[in-house]
Amino acid sequence: MKLPEIPKYSNENIEIALKYVPNREIIDIVQKYNEKYLHFNELKHKTLPVDPVIIWTIMKMFRMNNLKSIHFGNWIFNYSLIDEFIEKLHTLDKSASGNLSTALESIPSEKERYIIDSLMEEAIASSQIEGAVTTRNVAKEMLKKGRKPKNKDQKMILNNYNTMKYILTIKNKEFSVEEILKIHKLITDGTLEDPEFVGKFRKDNEIAVYSTDGTLLHQPPEYGLVEKLMEEFCEFSNSKDKFIHPIIKGIIIHFLIGYIHPFNDGNGRTARSLFYWYLLKNDYWLFEYMAISRVINGSKGQYRDAYLKTESDTFYKDDKGDLTYFIKYNLECICKSLDEILNYLSIKQAEQKEVLKLISKSEDLNLRQAEILKEILKTPENIITIKEIVKTYNVAYATGRADLNHLVDLGYLEKKKAGKEFVYILKKN
Question: 175: which of 116, 201, 237, 361 fits an S-S bond (Cβ 3.0–4.6 Å)?
Fold first, then answer.
């Protein structure tokens, strides 16, 4: 694997580039590819009327006009608010929230259930990104039925799920080093080769990011700087001195954890958890319904490339990278996740009509009980437990037991003893 290529700047290239600035055809090409925010690695494969280095030089000159800088430690990161970002942020701020709120209000029984489901999906996918080997169905069944994990991969998923639930309880807190260490401990407990590293910053410089062929992709800062950098990270995350759109800032927070690499392991899972925490803390409630890691897991190569493009492209000598690439990739994932939610809710609205028909035939069923029965009818061979109802619908144990026993009384289910607990199955006619 090769690192992204960026041509070296020279006075000669700048002088040549300036000669082409009055050329309308060249400027149209520059604007076209700047709107897409192409990296040089992509640009060099395009059919161009002049040397790609010249086009790239002009592109960089134009990008500087919209540059926003973030000073962090002794580093400077830059990003551009391209039109695509403005459009996506507007969708997430206005239209999306309104559409999602309306859809959820029309099917209130789905609200809590969908949050639980999205937490499970996020926990599973975030672990799979980091190498957890298990199927989604097996992992989800473990979480729903409250089973103990059978191996380290399943333990990773359970940890992620418990961490996401914990974040919901602290979503209004300020970021602090203590809370970040606690989150890391929740994420990594029982999954690291050396338990000494659980909930602690790294104590050496042996951690680096390599490709599968051994190419060094990222060398994190000296370990002696980590604690100070993480204190500054918290200050940056909590600060309201300089406005950065919360979703953009959440994505930058995600990137910074990957860049600092403060832990021996679990950096990616921690970064995605802190992104989630930051958005909830800033009242972006719709992120409770998003399993963004599921989208990332389906495009892991692009996720890695977004990091590499960011670090490879700089504007000035002391810059550490152009965050626009990382922001662009993550915004695409967020919007795709939102589309999945809206599509899901559209299907659920249609299904609810069927549930209401079921209720009309049996006035003794409430909406949740009808929903439980509908789900059981989809997989009639499955065994249902009270714990599964509790976890899926976020209800008390007594409520889950009452719902299932009511379906037994109405003749829909059979109740059987299995060990120390009762289980329920669809009653055969």
Answer: 237
- In whole angstroms, how far apart are CA 14 and each of 27, 67, 69, 280? 15, 19, 23, 45
Higher-confidence position of 99 and 367: 367
Domain count, the chain: 3
The residue among 325, 255, 219, 309 whose CA lies nearest residue 3 is 309
pTM flag (> 0.85): no
Is residue 353 in some structural domain? Answer: no
Whether residue 216 is found in the same domain as residue 284: yes
**Looking at the structure, do residues 407 and 384 belong to the same domain, yes or no?**
yes
Q: Is residue 350 part of a domain?
A: no
213: tokens are 């062929």
Distance of alpha carbon 266 from alpha carbon 184, whole angstroms: 7
The continuous run of DSSP H or E covering 413 comes out as strand 413-418
Contacts of residues 130-139 at CB distance under 8 Å and 24 or more positions apart, as own/partner, are 130/156, 130/266, 130/268, 130/269, 132/156, 132/157
Summarised one tens digit per residue, pLDDT across range 175-223 is: 999 999 999 999 999 999 889 999 999 999 998 888 888 888 899 999 9
Q: Tell me whether residue 232 is exposed, middle or buried, using C-beta atoms within 10 angstroms of its C-beta: 0 to 12, 13 to 18, 19 or more.
A: middle
Please indicate, yes or no, whether residues 66 and 21 belong to a single structural domain of this protein: yes
Question: Residue 367 sits in which domain range?
Answer: 363-426
Q: Does residue 76 lie in a domain region?
A: no
DSSP letter for 38, please.
Answer: -
Q: Note the pLDDT tens digit of each residue in 53-107.
A: 999 999 999 999 889 999 988 899 999 999 999 999 998 887 655 666 666 666 6
Output the six-digit token pair for 344. 């899901």
6 lies in a domain? no
Please tell me whether residues 159 and 221 are part of one structural domain. yes
pLDDT value, residue 136: 85
User: Is 140 in the same domain as 67?
Assistant: no
